[in-house]
Write a structure and sequence with these properties.
The complex is a heterotrimer.
Chain A: E1 16-22, E2 25-31, H1 37-44, E3 63-66, E4 69-72, E5 85-87, H2 89-94, H3 99-107, H4 117-130, H5 136-142, H6 154-176
Parallel strand pairs in A: 1-5
Antiparallel strand pairs in A: 1-2, 3-4, 3-5
Chain B: E1 7-9, H1 14-24, E2 28-31, H2 37-42, E3 50-53, E4 63-66, E5 69-73, H3 78-82, H4 85-90, H5 92-97, H6 104-107, H7 112-118, H8 124-131, E6 135-140, E7 143-148, H9 149-152, E8 153-155, E9 158-159, E10 166-172, E11 179-186, E12 196-205, E13 208-217, E14 224-225, H10 227-233, H11 240-253, H12 264-283
Parallel strand pairs in B: 1-3, 2-3
Antiparallel strand pairs in B: 4-5, 5-10, 6-7, 6-10, 8-9, 11-12, 12-13, 13-14
Chain C: E1 2-9, H1 13-20, H2 23-29, E2 33-40, E3 43-52, E4 55-69, E5 73-81, E6 87-99, E7 102-114, H3 116-121, H4 125-149, H5 155-158, H6 167-171, H7 173-188, H8 194-217
Antiparallel strand pairs in C: 1-7, 2-3, 3-4, 4-5, 5-6, 6-7
Helix pairs in contact in C: 2-4, 7-8
Classes of the chains: A alpha+beta, B alpha+beta, C alpha+beta.
């Protein structure tokens, strides 16, 4: 992790040098302390897959991964991510990590305008990792931090449960084989 | 909205954090998990000149068992507590409470120390610290001091912490074999601020309750214990009569204030419901918690 | 948000009334208050830094006195803007009652906060208003107690000569003149705790009589 060199003036608000691993690639940037992670990703790097809804942490549209865990991109400063790794929906999609989820979302019509979708997928992805035995109630609780204005949520829950179920089936078949 | 401009420091040493804090006073804000602070800045409800990020200070991290009990570093996140085997074994009440805190993304960054320092009456950790007779360890350039949870929360968003002090860690006495815990919270939606909640602990000696601690969430302007009701339960066996007595005492002791969604009367009633549920939980022959594997 | 309360102040209504109308005392007692300026007899402007948990919001506001009943009470109408933080407005009715040598001050207040502070802080509105009121009256009582024992050079004594802070004399001229006469005698005899109280009582009776007469004729 790089050291934050103390500027001669403690209170200088200008841009700092940061080194962040984004979707697997480490790169250097200059960013003002006030800039939060999602603004940096969208405006600084053109990664527009993460969206801004409320900018105070309640809607979940800005959900990204920091060091492998989902976080609110609007409640992390880009400078806080110095020396750490960030994964966005673009990275997870390109790597194929969320392919099952994406296909299930399409199958179940779990998106309309798509604004909440990247956040939903990020959250669902962590659920699959952390609690592969989640039941419907637990899925609902897990994604209750991501707001959707279009679908009414049922289709999203259906899609996630679908993936959970098929993974368990695959696991059983794998074990039986 | 976007946060106003500010400066940023990420010292490695605790002494440097304290120096900056002392030097800049209220113009500087400590950045722990940032889940409350950054939301406040984004809404421009505060415009500090400097944020002091504590993420690189090793001394503030880690969960361990010491001679004083379970030590929770101030920078330990809610998720770390949620999934910790040490917590499950030595302070299972925290494991019961953790899933109620906001949502996963918030829990991955929000910290134990941050929650205790704000002392929000609707937060889970302050009430848990009260119910477990925890200790706050505060440090300033002048030195370290230990503050009992019972003395720590003094008013609305007001704690014993001095302006130049920060929380280094909290210590919680490890659970004894005869100790039982209950955590119940009511919120309109999962992750919302609690309408009413109760963190409870008690020793269970052959059906007799001992050292009952009832710490309330969302009832007053700060986390608080209902000591008169605790006294009623002290040394008693659970029964319908005892419950009725406890509920009556609670009604006269707790002065719930109305909030945006519930009247004072509704909160008083719901507090009684929480007490009933908690006593039911304490009375179960075997403590079965979702996240714990108690011996 | 609605609030009501009652506080007993160990001083005569005259002293309490004076202090309530003194911008300097208000500045010292209002939590986070940075400045209070008297604009006219009925209007004061204030700047307050609201500190609550993570919030630090500067509010600039004005207080208008209406329904003024000297020594008995008044209504305060206030409104303040916190910039992007929000907007607050409300009113408070204050009544004074002499109880033996003390004054019981009853207050009711209602306020609404719009904007972000109202949205985010809504659930804590009542509790924070109550805390501010408690802190205000604790400081207010300390100010008045300090004046009675002469320990603290508070505004009432200081403002005899100062220009900006002599709020009491300027807007209730007759009442205040009677009061300031009592003030100077009170300043000299602070050694004997009982004498000032008696003098205050006499001054209070005199001032009330004059004030009521004045009010009936002039201050309508």
């Amino acid at each position: 992790m790089t050291d934050q060199e103390q500027a001669p003036d403690d209170l200088a608000t200008d841009a700092r040098a940061v080194s962040i691993t984004i979707n697997g690639t480490c790169s250097q940037h200059h960013v003002q302390p006030r800039t939060h992670l999602v603004d940096f990703l969208r405006e600084g790097l053109g990664l527009k897959g993460s969206h801004l809804g409320c900018e105070h942490g309640v809607c979940g549209a800005c959900t990204v991964q920091l060091d492998g865990q989902v976080v609110r991109g609007c409640l992390v400063l880009a400078v806080q991510a110095d020396g750490r790794s960030v994964n966005t929906i673009e990275g997870l999609s390109d790597s194929g990590a969320i392919r099952e989820l994406q296909q299930a979302f399409v199958r179940h019509n779990a998106l309309q305008c798509g604004f909440c979708t990247s956040g939903m997928l990020m959250a669902a992805h962590e659920l699959l990792e952390k609690n592969p035995d989640a039941n419907r109630e637990q899925v609902r609780e897990w994604i209750s931090g991501n707001y959707c204005r279009c679908t009414g949520y049922q289709a999203i829950v259906d899609a996630i449960c679908d993936v959970l179920a098929s993974r368990k089936t695959a696991q059983r078949e794998g074990a039986a084989a | 909205m976007k946060a106003p401009p500010f400066s940023y420091a990420r010292p490695r040493r605790l002494a440097d954090v304290l120096s900056l804090l002392e030097k800049h006073g209220d113009e500087a804000r400590l950045l722990a998990g940032g889940q409350t602070l950054l939301a406040t800045l984004n809404m421009r409800l505060s415009e500090p000149s400097l944020l002091i990020d504590m993420q690189s200070v090793q001394e503030l991290k880690g969960l361990s068992v010491t001679s004083n009990g379970l030590r929770i570093g101030a920078m330990v996140t809610h998720s770390e507590i949620e999934s910790s085997g040490l917590v499950a074994q030595h302070a299972p009440l925290l494991g019961l409470a953790a899933p109620h805190i906001a949502h996963r993304a918030i829990r991955n960054l929000g910290t134990f120390g941050g929650s205790i320092a704000y002392g929000d009456p609707a937060a889970e950790w302050p009430a848990c610290l009260l119910a477990l007779d925890g200790m706050v360890i505060a440090r300033s350039l002048q030195g370290e001091r230990r503050i009992a949870a019972l003395d720590f929360f003094t008013g609305l968003y007001t704690t014993e912490l001095a302006a130049n002090e920060l929380i280094v860690a909290c210590e919680i006495p490890v659970a004894t074999p005869s100790q039982r815990f209950a955590f119940h919270e009511l919120a309109r939606r999962h992750g919302d601020y609690a309408v009413v909640g109760l963190a409870a602990s008690a020793q269970w000696n052959d059906g007799e309750l001992d050292q009952v601690r009832l710490a309330w969430i969302g009832v007053g302007n700060m986390p608080l214990r209902s000591s008169a009701t605790e006294q009623i339960l002290q040394g008693q066996c659970l029964s319908d009569a005892l419950l009725a007595q406890a509920l009556q005492t609670l009604r006269s002791e707790l002065h719930a204030e109305a909030d945006l969604t519930h009247s004072a009367a509704a909160k008083q009633h719901l507090a009684g419901v929480m007490l009933k549920r908690a006593l039911n939980t304490l009375g179960r022959p075997r403590q079965l918690a979702e996240n714990s594997n108690i011996v | 948000m609605e609030l009501q309360g009652s506080v007993t102040i160990p001083a005569a209504p005259q002293q309490v009334w004076q202090a309530l109308n003194d911008p300097e005392i208000l500045r010292l007692c209002i939590p986070g208050c940075e400045e209070v300026r008297q604009i006219s007899p009925q209007e004061m402007h204030a700047r307050v830094l609201l500190k609550l948990g993570p919030v630090r919001a500067n509010f600039v506001g004005k207080v208008l006195l209406t329904d003024v009943r000297p020594l008995l009470g008044c209504t305060l109408n206030f409104e303040g803007s916190g910039g992007s933080a929000g907007f607050a407005r409300g009113s408070s009715v204050i009544t004074l009652n002499a109880i033996a040598e003390d004054t019981r001050l009853d207050y009711t207040a209602q306020a609404s906060v719009a904007g972000k502070l109202g949205q985010i802080g809504g659930r804590l509105m009542d509790a924070s208003a109550r805390q501010m009121a408690d802190r205000f009256f604790a400081a207010f009582k300390a100010q008045i107690a300090g004046a009675a024992t002469g320990e603290r050079p508070i505004a009432v004594a200081e403002s005899a000569g100062a220009e900006a802070t002599t709020a009491a004399p300027t807007h209730f001229p007759v009442v205040a003149r009677a009061a300031s006469a009592a003030q100077s005698s009170q300043g000299e005899s602070w050694l004997d705790k009982e004498k000032p109280r008696l003098l205050w009582f006499v001054a209070g009776v005199a001032a009330t009589t004059i004030g009521v007469w004045m009010g009936a004729h002039w201050l309508r």
